[in-house]
Design a protein that fits this description.
By secondary structure, the chain is α/β, with parallel strands linked by helices. The chain has a single domain, classed as Class I glutamine amidotransferase (GATase) domain (Rossmann fold, 3-Layer(aba) Sandwich), CATH 3.40.50. 32% of the residues lie in helices and 24% in strands. It has a seven-stranded mixed beta sheet with strand order 5-2-1-6-7-11-10, with helices on both faces. Helix 1 packs parallel to helix 6.
Amino acid sequence: MAKVCFLLDNGYEDSEMKNPYDAVSEAGHETVVVGIEKGVELKGKKGTVSYTSDLSISEVKADDYNAVIIPGGSAPEALRVNDEVVQFVKQANEQGKVIAGICHGPQVMISADILKGVSATSYIGIRDDLKNAGSTFLDQEVVVDGNIITSRTPKDEPAFIKEILKKL
């Protein structure tokens, strides 16, 4: 079974964390919530779920994970300005690990500079950011390009989850 890192901070889109997390866990994979700091309660923007970070970003290595999942909401904005988060995602990509982002999640991928020449999708509000990062934006429920999986919004979660589980 795979070991899957969920990169998280406060303000994530509740369902974009909960549904993939539950599906990955139920499929028998090990899930680890990684935040800027260890042991911090992280709350979704709707307040329906919260998670406590198992580890801090300074404690993790890309070598230890098969996949990195980045839920959307406002959390990716807080994550992308952390150099350790950016380096972690960059290293995971260099190792060919699965990197999946939904909604605003691809913002972290943009900061890690891993989307050049990659087809991707996202929340429509950051479409130009994807294009400016060298990505081909596709307005589809899920886009898989090599090890990168991207999706748009909560309504696309079933397709997003299906592709993640297929790659794992």
